[in-house]
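As promised in the previous annual report, we have extended the structural survey to additional targets. Below is the entry for Amidoligase enzyme.
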Amino acid sequence: MASWMLIIPATVLLLWSSQFRSPCFAWAQHRVGLELELHMPLSNVEGAAKMLAKRSDLYLAKRCDGDRRKVYRPDGGISPYKDGEDRVCTRYWVVQHDSSLDDIKNMTSLELSSRAKAFQDLEGDIDAVSDALCDLDARITKSCGFHVHMDMTELSKAKMKHVTLVNFARLWVRLEPLLLAVVPPSRRDNQYCKQVAPFLRGKDLWRLWYGHEYFMARDVKELLNPDGKYHTVNFPDEDRLYHTLEVRLHSGTVEAWKIKRWVKLCLQLLEVCKAPWDEEMRWLVRRGSMLHLLTLCVDEEVSAHIFRRAFHFIRTYPHVKLPDAVSWLERASQHGYPQSGKWQEFDCTGCGERFPSDIPLSEATALCWSCLHKPDGGVKLSSPEIIEKPTQGWPLNLCGCCGKIFPSKRPYLGRRLPTCRTCSGPGAISCS
Ligand SMILES: [Zn+2]
Ligand SMILES: [Zn+2]
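The corresponding structure token record, generated without further manual editing, is:
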């Protein structure tokens, strides 16, 4: 047998499996812990722990007195376990009663915490727990939340915690209105996850943007979490032994696809914050296009998820107004977003470059946006002197005419919004 015959199946298998697991990106190696709040149709926590361990094939710990734990095994047995120094549960998922949730008749309210692990090592657990919870008919109510804890201890050791926290605060303040649109209205006005951005006054914002990261890191908690931990994002408490940055915005869910994409979003945003920003990045976060910022920070799967969820909630709650900063989403939602999350791609018959399109085109006559608008050639939009940070996937734009979100080959950084193909191509109807 020729050697290439062996290589091909291995390559195919590798590509195939990478569709289902996050490859070794830096963000996927960051340690996270998840908290899921939910109700189960079982009479007590012990019963729930036993059933969940069996169905998910995972070990589940339940707190007893002090540092003692009971570990429920997949084989149905129970082992004693003493927590000792390991107060962060790296070994087991933990299940406990949650008294903060609504009381529902014949249901037990639970908080299920994952073991703290690198995201890429936690994905299998998330699938298993989600399947088990769906099988066991777990329920979600408006009082349930889903929290993501991102570990800060490694960054602290590397002396990068202050930069990361302050940058994350800056990024969150800018993106919070968009992220609010991605969750149901019950999370947007909620005493357990209060918004952060509206708290900030001019002087505080000035400090956040221009203050030195080293000094700001001490104040960021006070600035963004004036009401303690019940905010969309909860900055670490310096007094606590374990430092995590907690995102509390998401509504309760037991569905693996929602859980994983939200965790990816949090980690990809965090990844951008792990180094000091240059002037270009600072400007972009503060004043640049939200769409451009998003495609710089998160990959295509995550940005597609953000828009599809936002459009879903706009359709489901047509009378609920969005924050002013993202009111453009309402118009954009009328045009939708590709179901697959992927844009169609074509080879330009003018310049030969690959480009994305929001509408179907004929392969034989496909022209990229630049060639379409400058058919006489000289299509280089960006000059070599301009350094453009590579986006993750095709850059996104908002059509200045019809309000649709559409992709482009290169980011448009001009002041005027570009127009989509439908509004500016041959035979376009002017939106005026
Ligand atoms: Zn072209
Ligand atoms: Zn348009």
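The pocket of zinc ion (ligand 2) is lined by residues 399, 401-402, 404, 419-420, 422-423 (CB under 6 Å). The domain at 33-142 is CATH 3.30.310 (TATA-Binding Protein). These points will be discussed at the next consortium meeting with the crystallography subgroup.
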